[in-house]
Specification:
The complex is a heterotrimer of chains A (256), B (397) and C (323). Chain A is an alpha/beta fold. Chain A contains 6 helices and 13 strands. Chain C has 323 residues and is α/β, with parallel strands linked by helices. Chain C contains 7 helices and 17 strands. The chains are: A alpha/beta (256), B alpha/beta (397), C alpha/beta (323). Strand 13 (232-233) of chain A pairs parallel with strand 17 (303-305) of chain C.
Chain lengths: 256, 397, 323
């Protein structure tokens, strides 16, 4: 059982995001990048499957800057091999279409049983990496998964629907799975183990190939939502507030 | 790396501290388990833990998660008749093994992960570490920005930097230092968590990472000594940083002020007319025999109108607030296991002592004791203040 | 057909999901701006029965097949892709959901059509409509054109009122046969799983009614339970409440408890201290009710009210029940 895990680095929202005045785009100079949280879940799910069934877990990521610690941490958690895909301009960010195209090339040459990625990431604009990749590879894709159980020739996965409903779906392997939550939270790995991995393990590097991409959505600009440091206060007495609140909840699609 | 047998674990414990060998002399007297604030709720309080290891029940020990009730208060270590370094040697080493095995309460995992990624346990942006000092009435020099030599490097700490309640304490400290004419500076965005709490939660590797960052930052600047309002930082800087190459004078701010009591007194113009009781923080007192008990009291007595009363458990018998060793993030966990809060006991003692104010000298204590004031139904009665806040109050008009 | 605006109707267990109406409202605006028709596409089984509220669209295209009865990403994707390839609409709207996004990405990649996800609103334009999407956890707005000849978007709620997309009649319906056959799919829908009884995992709940010290006594928690029931959510709380034993620790939100990111976090009588905020500040919609207008919770909430929590809970429950 050979599982590939795709990791994407995204802006860390702990930092303030700023718009570059000249370009009208996100100012990447002070951006802190972090591994996409759901990709960490994908890795965790892959490691759980490896623990149960044996096999290998391989992690791939585009070299968008400070990725080494994450890759060594993956090794410390139990991944077998980790790959850093190096390419021009990656440090300025890469669209999901580009990521999918690059990952497609990187995954060539191995017959993977499963490819796991986080269903989505905070900076997604032009789709989801896993779903785009699956279509490129002409493999079945199911997203928003919270459980993956292997069975003969495939997997039984649990998909999360709006409203807390779940569904069991069977899929034949190989397949691409979009993970929403691993069956347990991403494991903690003690710092000393990561330090050890830094000394004893290697990150393999691949050159990003030239890729053909169509379908990236044009981005005219980014802006900050209207500053509202404090809550918008709802006026009136209890009855007024109740009415206004219910109206708000309806508008937001929270209640029917 | 990870330990497979009781024997291997004991060897590790023995190697962890200079007096590690003392563990072989354990009398099984049980005093440690007796003074432990959560001993009653642990499956393996210190005495039982040693007994279990001697009986080669390493797997039984690993299966229990109640080690996470240990708040690293040093009560057991202090009282042990054969001076086994229980807190630093036995208990934190067990926590390390639990971490290596992947057993860790979720809330603590988040705090440790935050410290690793952001240099503070709250997960706040490192760039905002000095925001509390921005636009403040008293100038606070940020060493990396202002690049002036100072007499004192003030190590602020996570809570003093980011927690709204404790930021008030930081501002009071700045006022007092300024009024005394002390040339001080802070590391600001270059400061990382001191690492003490992470260490006692078992993450010695993370501690080293954080310590190296702090040492590297401090090496850039010129100062005579380091002071801090955080006993955990004090303990780490004084006892653990030297082996990593940091050998500077480190003092808790109460020691620094006690030395300057004659300069301080004339500034304390306003009488406070308060009955104050002082809570001895574990890490100023029992931990590593720091024994800093009198200086904070001296400083308090210098405030006009302050009547100092003592709680039943004071000095080396002080009751832990429960914040150490990761406890700050494990209140939900402790409550579930023990259904008791160490802070509640303390508040009740303060009230019994007839105090108006519970004075503290540790950043964990202000929010923890204030919560307990509410949960014991003393809101509107007992007030919690850091010593430095009382000083600032007495300096104002 | 070509050059029209299409809404891929989202259904779940025989009901049209609310996001569909948001999409129809958006689609109506876009279609009018382009001078094009608005088409609602329904894939399923016995779909005509579902068309009764889709009248905002100019027409509905219904594709029926037993294999389409329950959502199967692979099968639905194949059918959708074939239909779109043939019909070539100008814009395709799907819901930004577990159903819509599975389809949107596959279809966009397959047809090499540009794709924008998480769109909240659009501006009509006779030539190139513009999208506006919230990204980076709601901290940034991304805008840009939706280029022709064809483009795919997924739609998030919030930019349009679902009522504006709802009608009480069906549009003219055209039934289409499933394009191509169903060769062996590698994916198979098996069964739905109802949420389990027993204590809930609040981090998985979409609606949370959270109580703090302002709820005052244990008995008042019942008011929160009533409200939660009517909202389809569960009750959780801050530390003081849980520590008192008024709620089990599984319901604790905050640094020492669970981190939650629900669709709605209703913070009642909660001050919003950092320890608590840490557990809920990333919720999609935070509404805070606290009589103290300086309570820190208002720094995290999008909406607030300083009325009495104990009075508001039953009032809210009643209004919700009425409608």
């Amino acid at each position: 059982m050979d599982i590939a895990v795709l990791v994407k680095f995204v802006p860390d929202l702990v930092e303030e995001l700023e718009i570059d005045e000249d370009t009208g785009m996100l100012d990447r100079a002070f951006l802190r990048l972090m591994p996409n949280e759901l990709d960490e879940h994908a890795l965790e799910q892959a490691l759980l499957l490896k623990e149960r069934h044996g096999g290998t877990v391989t992690v791939f990521t585009l070299d968008t800057g400070d990725v080494d610690e994450t890759l060594f941490t993956a090794i410390a958690k139990g991944a077998d091999r980790v790959f850093k895909i190096v390419g021009e301009g990656f440090d300025e960010g890469a669209s999901n279409h580009r990521q999918a195209a690059v990952f497609q090339e990187a995954l060539q040459g191995t017959s993977w049983d499963l490819i796991l990625a986080g269903t989505q990431a905070v900076d997604d604009l032009d789709g989801f990496v896993g779903a785009l990749l699956a279509q490129r590879l002409e493999l079945p894709y199911i997203g928003y998964l919270t459980k993956v159980v292997l069975q003969d020739g495939g997997a039984l996965v649990q998909k999360e629907y709006p409203g807390g409903l779940n569904a069991d779906i069977e899929v034949a392997c190989p397949a691409v799975l979009g993970i929403q939550a691993a069956e347990q939270p991403p494991r903690y790995v003690v710092t000393s183990k990561v330090m050890e991995a830094m000394k004893s393990a290697t990150i393999e590097e691949i050159e990003a190939p030239e890729v053909e991409i169509a379908g990236e959505i044009p981005l005219a600009g980014m802006s900050l939502p209207e500053a509202g440091a404090q809550a918008e206060m709802i006026e009136g007495d209890v009855a007024d507030v109740a009415e206004s609140l219910v109206k708000l909840l309806r508008e937001r699609g929270v209640v029917a | 790396m990870s330990v497979a047998t009781s024997y291997e674990f004991l060897e590790k414990v023995i190697g962890a501290t200079p007096d590690g060998e003392h563990i072989r002399k354990c009398l099984q007297c049980g005093t440690c388990s007796g003074v432990c604030p959560y001993g009653f709720a642990m499956e393996f309080p210190p005495r039982s833990l040693i007994a279990a290891l001697r009986a080669d029940d390493w797997h039984g020990v690993l299966e229990s998660d109640t080690i996470w009730l240990c708040v690293s208060c040093f009560a057991c270590a202090k009282v042990c008749p054969v001076e086994i370094p229980l807190t630093r040697g036995l208990l934190s080493t067990l926590k390390t093994e639990m971490l290596v095995g992947g057993s860790i309460p979720q809330e603590l995992q988040t705090a440790l992960g935050n410290a690793r990624r952001y240099g503070n346990a709250m997960g706040e942006s490192p760039r905002k570490r000095a925001e509390w000092a921005r636009d403040f009435t008293v100038p606070v020099s940020i060493l990396g920005r202002d690049k002036e030599p100072v007499d004192v490097l003030w190590f602020v700490g996570d809570y003093g930097s980011y927690h709204p309640r404790v930021q008030q304490v930081s501002r009071a400290m700045a006022k007092v230092l300024h009024a005394l004419g002390v040339r001080f500076g802070i590391l600001g965005p270059e400061e990382n968590s001191d690492g003490d709490t992470q260490a006692f939660a078992g993450e010695w590797g993370l501690f080293e990472l954080l310590a190296q960052k702090n040492i590297k930052a401090m090496r850039r600047y010129v100062f005579d000594e380091v002071i801090t309002g955080d006993p955990h930082a004090y303990n780490a800087l004084r006892h653990e940083y030297p082996r990593l190459g940091f050998e500077r004078t480190v003092r808790h701010y109460t020691q620094y002020l006690a030395e300057r009591i004659d300069d301080l007194r004339p500034l304390l113009r306003k009488p406070l007319e308060l009955r104050v009781t002082y809570h001895d923080p574990c890490y100023l007192g029992r931990a590593n025999d720091n024994n800093i008990y009198e200086e904070p009291r001296e400083v308090l007595r210098a405030i006009p109108g302050v009547e100092l009363v003592e709680m039943a458990h004071n000095r080396e018998f002080s009751l832990c607030c429960g914040g150490g060793g990761g406890g700050m993030w494990l209140d939900g966990f402790s409550w579930e296991k023990a259904h008791a809060r160490t802070t509640d006991w303390r508040i009740k003692e303060a009230v019994l002592a007839g105090a108006d104010v519970l004075a503290v000298a540790c950043p964990y204590e202000t929010p923890r004791f204030e919560d307990a004031v509410k949960s014991t139904g003393n809101e509107g009665g007992l007030v919690v203040k850091d010593i430095v806040e009382l000083l600032a109050e007495s300096m104002s008009d | 057909m070509a050059g029209d605006v299409w809404v891929v109707v989202e259904t779940l267990r025989g009901e049209v999901s609310e996001i569909t109406y948001t999409m129809l409202a958006a689609g109506r605006q876009l279609a009018d701006g382009l001078g094009a028709k608005l088409t609602a596409l329904v894939l399923g089984n016995e779909t005509e029965a579902l068309a009764g509220t889709l009248g905002v669209a100019d027409q509905a295209i219904c594709i029926d097949h037993a294999e389409l009865a329950e959502f199967n990403p692979e099968v639905h994707l194949r059918v959708l892709g074939a239909v779109l390839e043939e019909q070539k609409p100008r814009l395709v709207l799907l819901g930004h959901t577990a159903i819509g996004t599975d389809l949107a990405c596959g279809v966009a990649q397959r047809l090499s059509w540009p794709l924008a996800v998480g769109c909240r609103s659009f501006t009509e334009d006779s030539d190139e409509p513009q999208y506006s999407a919230l990204t980076c956890g709601g901290k940034l707005i991304a805008t840009g054109p939706l280029p022709g000849p064809s483009c795919v978007v997924t739609v998030m709620p919030g930019g349009y009122k679902p009522e504006d997309g709802m009608a009480d009649k069906a549009p003219p319906i055209e039934a289409l046969a499933v394009p191509g056959g169903f060769e062996a799919a590698r994916t198979r829908f098996k069964a739905y799983i109802e949420p389990p009884a027993g204590d809930v995992d609040i981090s998985k709940e979409p609606i949370l009614v959270s109580v703090g010290r302002g709820v005052q006594t244990q008995d008042n928690i019942a008011l929160a339970e009533e409200l939660a029931k009517v909202l389809g959510g569960v009750v959780c709380g801050s530390r003081p409440v849980v520590d008192q034993g008024w709620l089990p620790t599984t319901r604790l939100v905050g640094k020492s408890g669970k981190q939650v990111k629900p669709k709605l976090y209703l913070a009642l009588g909660i001050s919003g201290a950092p320890e608590h905020a840490e557990g809920m500040r990333d919720a999609e919609l935070i509404v805070a009710v606290n009589q103290d207008e300086t309570a820190p919770i208002y720094g995290f909430a999008q909406y607030g009210a300083t009325v009495n929590v104990l009075e508001l809970m039953p009032a809210l429950t009643e209004v919700l029940r009425k409608n």
